[in-house]
Prior knowledge:
The complex is a heterotrimer.
Chain A: H1 6-11, E1 15-20, H2 29-37, H3 45-49, E2 58-64, E3 71-77, E4 96-98, E5 104-106, H4 116-120, E6 126-128, H5 137-140, E7 155-157, H6 162-175, H7 187-191, E8 197-201, H8 208-212, E9 218-219, E10 231-234, E11 236-237, E12 243-244
Chain B: H1 9-16, H2 18-21, H3 27-51, H4 66-77, H5 79-90, H6 100-120, H7 129-132, H8 148-181, H9 184-193, H10 201-234, H11 247-274, H12 282-312, H13 316-327, H14 331-344, H15 346-350, H16 353-356, H17 359-386, H18 402-425, H19 431-440, E1 441-446, E2 449-456
Chain C: E1 7-9, H1 17-24, H2 34-59, H3 68-93, H4 103-107, H5 109-126, H6 134-137, H7 154-188, H8 191-201, H9 208-240, H10 253-278, H11 288-319, H12 322-333, H13 337-355, H14 358-361, H15 366-390, H16 396-401, H17 416-436, H18 445-454, E2 455-460, E3 463-469
Antiparallel strand pairs in C: 1-2, 2-3
Amino acid sequence: MVTETAAQRVSSHKWGMVVDVDRCTGCQACVMACQAENNIPLSTEDIYRQKRTFAWIRVERYWYGDFPDVKARFIPIMCQHCENAPCEPVCPVFATYHNTEGMNVQIYNRCVGTRYCANGCPYNVRFFNYWEPVWPVSLRNQLNPDVTVRSRGIMEKCSFCVQRIRRGVREAARDGHDLHDGDIGTACTDACPTDALVFGDYNDKNSRVSIMAKDDRKYTHLDALNTDPNVLYLAQVDATGGAHGGHD
Amino acid sequence: MQQRRILDEFTVNHELLRGNLATPKWWLPTVLGLLVVVLFGFTLMGIMFNRGLGVTGLSRPVYWGLFITTFVFWVGISHAGIMISAILRLTQAEWRRPVTRAAELLTVFSLLTALFFPLIHAGRPWRIFYWITPYDFARGIFPNARSPLVWDPFAIGTYLTGSTLFLYVALLPDLGVLRDRTTGWKRSFYTVASLGWRGNPRQWRLQTVAGILLSALMLPIFVSVHSIVSWDFAVTPAVEGWHSTVFAPYFVVGAVHSGVSAVVTMMALMRWLWGWDNYIRPEHFDALARLLIVVACAWLALTFAELIFGVYSLEAPERALREMQMFEWPWNLLFIIFFLTGFAIPVPLWFFKRVRNNIAMMFWTSILVNIGMWLERFLIIVPGLSRKQPFVFTWDSYQVSPLEWGLLLWSFAWVMMLMLLFSKFFPLIPLFETKESQVFTTDVQIGRVTMPAVIRELD
Amino acid sequence: MATTSLITDAPDDRPSNIESTALLAGEGRTAAGTGLKRFMWLLAALSVIGFVGIVFRFINDDGRQDWGFYAATLAWMLTIFGGAPMVAIAPALAKADWVRPVARIASLGAIATAIIALLMIPLLFKFPALTQFSEVLGDDVRRRSIWFDSPSYAPHFWNVLILLTLALVGMAMAYVMAIPDFAAIRDHGTGWKQRWGKKLARGFYGRAQQWEWLKMRIGITGALYFAMLLYTNFTFSLDFAVSLVPGWKDSLFPFYHTITTFQAGIAFTIIGVWAARRWGGMNKYVGHEQMWSLGKFMLATTLLWFYFFYSSFIVFWYGRSDSDSATIKLLVSGPYIYLFWTVFFLVFLIPWWIMIWNKVRDSVWGPPIAAFIILFGLFLDRIRIYVASWSAVPDDLELATTSILQDMPNTMWPDVFDVFIMVGLPALGLLSILLVTRLVPLVSLWEIQQSRLITKPVRFLRSHVQLVGKPD
């Protein structure tokens, strides 16, 4: 067993996700799993009417085609963990920055709540706690102890379930073996019934994400903005053989 | 032709110190009324700190709304001071004299007001210190110098410091006058404040040089402050309508437009409230209106450029935003009001000499301009946020909450109250400037005409 | 308040009306010396060389990119000669008295703008139409421009028209500002000058009503010129630079162009004042007071160059999109990086360093040095912008279909014909101005005499100052 230093351990990975739009059925299991795993505040009807719902991962549905051949395309959108993130340079207190593992991380302790990062995000995947989160008694035992419960005034967003990544890395070191592809799964990728969401390490040439990243159908959202996201999408395949991407 | 008023020192002292040596009857009720509104505003802030920003109408994706609009608005108004006192001083324009102090005052107080808004609208305002203080405390990191939000407090703080110093240096001779005419605790106060002003040639020279130096040093700040505020928006490529290179001069020129109009409003009020007909005369309004025409036309050119480039790129998202901003309800109504009040009604009116010299008309048109300029900032900030990028699932609108309107009202009451409090203790029109202009001016006869003539320095 | 005024008379050594009339309009007015004649023949020769350059440019060119230097030269001429009349108008609108002696030199720049309008015509042959390739690409595919759905040759037509209008308005303004001087020449001059003065004075005899009419005309043409200058800078810079580079979206650029126009106009006026003193015998009329005031404005516009450049730079820098990065690379950090840094020093850093010292600014030798450096630097700046733009995408088909600049062009160096053009065309502009000064006095006589009426040197306590009357 090789003992790695902390620095070596953390910088040898580049975490990313591939989303296969063709497989997504729009069931929203990923949304539910994410909410449960990450202690996301409840989006009640009141919150919805205030237009402040939380969904670290959301499923957008676009219709295309003419009647009667109308089809839906479901696109799950979460934080794209952009290498060239527009949200990072604008935070006045460095509460969001890019770590060495290719993730855009949010430090809840540092956040002052100016919401500049949220304005900078073109994917609208950042969420602000306008209220102090309230949990009904029945749900308090469901809170995940590995994840901070955020107070009001703090920005939050998809963290690639960093608690699961850390746990996976620790357990691999404890058990004395290297990390294998598939050892670490985020909540959404574990919950997805059709395997539309795949999480892995781009630095591992044999991982599923690395292989899927070479697919012809690959595209990224809003690439004109040059954000260089770590979340890649595989376009939906039409019955006629064409590939549809994005939200046209 | 200007009519030269010949005023001796006694008259000048008596009239301009009217607000200080004796209190006008209307002063106390007005200040008390404003104080009520101010305290109400502080209560609202307390509610917001206590319960969270949820009490506002802000939502997702409109994370910045009325507070930031008002912030930019007050920073804009603060540009009046430099424009009038620094630039007009350096170009030796005589007509600046009655208004320099009031303009500087408006600058200082509007900056103080503006500073409130970004601080109260942060999610955790008790941690603001970590944002605006360039020190790494126990966290081991300094604020992020790449963020325009970190440049903002530095720029505004520098502007505030410079303006306050400028105001104080210009106040010194008048503080000496007040010291010599009061007794008791007031005299002690003015004695300390006037820093031993005796009015000898050495002190006058120092005071004049200090004023000129501060004016020259403040000029770059005049341009940079609002540019930095504009870069809060312009460096964000994600929001349609924000990522435009013209923002810096657009905001600065808009600020001068808004600020000089606010000075016109203030001058009219000063003349009416304190009866300073001898000092604030129609020719001052005439000169300000002509300056405003030039500034407003430059502003129009910049607005036109910003809108044209919105559609130039032919990118669907930006075109969609512009269409929404100008043609869809409720933005189209706001857009029309903004354009009418900001430019289309006041500026053509100002082309007429009769309007320029009519103080009531100038007062009302200047108020219209500021309504338009507030709306302009609103129209820049909110539509772009509510329709960000083509992810239509996150498009949403913004409902301004009563609390936010309350705080907007608070900001006006706060500024007015501070100005009135200042006017009780310090003269709003500089005595020494007025007396200096009396000494610098004489009558000359050219042919059959007698006209006033002013001294101009040759170097 | 003292009963006697603190303002007392001082000795007045300004030239009398008789002396100024004799110098500027009368018989004693110097004919062109041999030095000036030789200089004008030199300029004529250079102009001919310039035309040779144009002809050869037509004969051997490989496409649009070879015309970048021509476009840059025209842009530079527009910047200098178009901006100069602003110095005549703007302070007059603000009722500044110090500008009166230099207003003539400034307004003469308008003469050369007519030449620019004509010289633009060869360039238009190489300027791409909006829908050059719609047969090939189908349906009205047009390159991105500010003309949107206008006819295909709209930019060609409008640019010439706008520039011609600018020239006409400018010349009208210069003419109107010179009418009283033509009258003086008619009354005190001899020979061909007297005949021309009579024709141009059009019956101006200085009646009160004629003065009112004159003031109104000056005001109208001045305001129109300002508007036209802004508009010309808008269309010229957007058509000939910005819209030729795919992905360059810069709403500030026309204003950047305009501010440098003001900067160049002031520099041109300063150099004109220096030349008028050195060779034109105008020492008693234009001096360090004009230099000082003009120098202040030149310092301000120099700082504004940096401000406008930085404003667009920072927005592109933070944008980080492909088009933003490509724009920065093309104009600042890529093929023209050395040129950019030279421009930075010549247009901003060095003149700023020169002009911030009071002693230098308030002298007759300081501002001209900075002005020469600025004008040369602005020439390089125009080369940076226009040569880069014209070489951005060499093929019109590509220009119509590309939305982001993918491949950086190589650095373009001028060949011998480009040098001919860069030397010859400005020489032609300068020659046209010098020809006009054979008739029109270098310093406007009536402004001098009017200011002599309204101002006088006085003493205030122990210092010498100027007393300026305020007639309105």
